[in-house]
């Protein structure tokens, strides 16, 4: 199946690979910015109101808005992570060559996806006076992400784990799940509030790292029709075999303008 954008024809696998970065840029990163701004205002208002005889010009509703955006952030981060894992497993993993031999594995993966999504939904619905269930559903959601990330087809960049988009994404997702699970405790304990602040500052740094590593990975992912040629390249020497039938970029531009 081909999808046409002007003069560019893309295979379905190439188009599907754009969904994860598209949603990350259009949905997730704006929410990160809004949530970070609300968090800073909430912190400033709390410090200002603690001073004797002082009031804050920051409206009191900023705390509720920060909570709302934080809940949205957890859902979107976990959502785009699941989309990325589904793409990798679906097009490069067990579903690429589905047969009777790996049918059980495929069914197991589908059940893990369903269980992870259901656990996240139940985590949202857990009441503030149910810490045990909040912990259970948070653990199940995080375990589902880790199990799915360990499947064949997921590029983890283990040889450079310290600059891995996968590890940054999984870690930030786990931090967001933890942040959602401890929301009721933040209002009761100063220690939980400090833990929330520190861990989310770490998550913010990971999100910044994801912006860099994600852009780098997009440069490294070729279109599907380029794979056969790239497999012949010598990556150590950074050279590829010449093809007498290949056309220069200038020739491609002239051809496009002549249409």
From TrEMBL:
The keyword Transmembrane applies. Coiled coil: none annotated. The keyword Membrane applies. It comes from the Bacteria. Keywords: Membrane, Transmembrane, Transmembrane helix. InterPro entries: DUF4079 (IPR025067). The chain crosses the membrane at residues 18-40, 72-91, 103-124, 136-154, 166-187, 194-213. This is DUF4079 domain-containing protein. It comes from Limnospira indica PCC 8005.
């Amino acid at each position: 199946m081909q999808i046409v954008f002007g003069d560019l024809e893309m295979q379905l696998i190439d188009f599907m690979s754009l969904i994860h970065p598209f949603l990350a840029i259009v949905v997730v990163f704006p929410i990160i910015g809004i949530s970070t701004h609300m968090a800073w205002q909430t912190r400033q208002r709390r410090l200002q109101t603690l001073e004797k005889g002082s009031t804050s010009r920051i409206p009191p509703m900023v705390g509720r808005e920060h909570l709302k955006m934080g809940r949205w952030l957890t859902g979107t981060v976990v959502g785009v992570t699941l989309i990325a894992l589904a793409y990798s497993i679906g097009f490069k993993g067990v579903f690429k060559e589905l047969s009777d031999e790996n049918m059980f594995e495929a069914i197991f993966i589908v059940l893990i996806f369903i269980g992870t999504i259901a656990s996240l939904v139940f985590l949202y619905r857990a009441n503030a006076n149910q810490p045990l269930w909040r912990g259970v559903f948070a653990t199940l959601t995080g375990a589902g992400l880790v199990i799915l990330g360990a499947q064949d087809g997921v590029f983890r960049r283990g040889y450079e784990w310290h600059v891995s988009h996968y590890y940054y994404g999984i870690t930030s997702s786990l931090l967001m799940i933890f942040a959602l699970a401890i929301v009721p405790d933040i209002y009761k304990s100063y220690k939980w509030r400090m833990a929330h602040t520190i861990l989310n500052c770490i998550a913010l740094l990971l999100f910044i790292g994801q912006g860099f590593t994600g852009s780098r990975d997009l440069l490294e992912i070729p279109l599907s029709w380029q794979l056969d040629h790239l497999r012949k390249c010598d990556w150590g020497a950074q050279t590829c075999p010449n093809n007498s039938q290949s056309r220069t970029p200038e020739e491609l531009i002239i051809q496009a303008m002549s249409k």
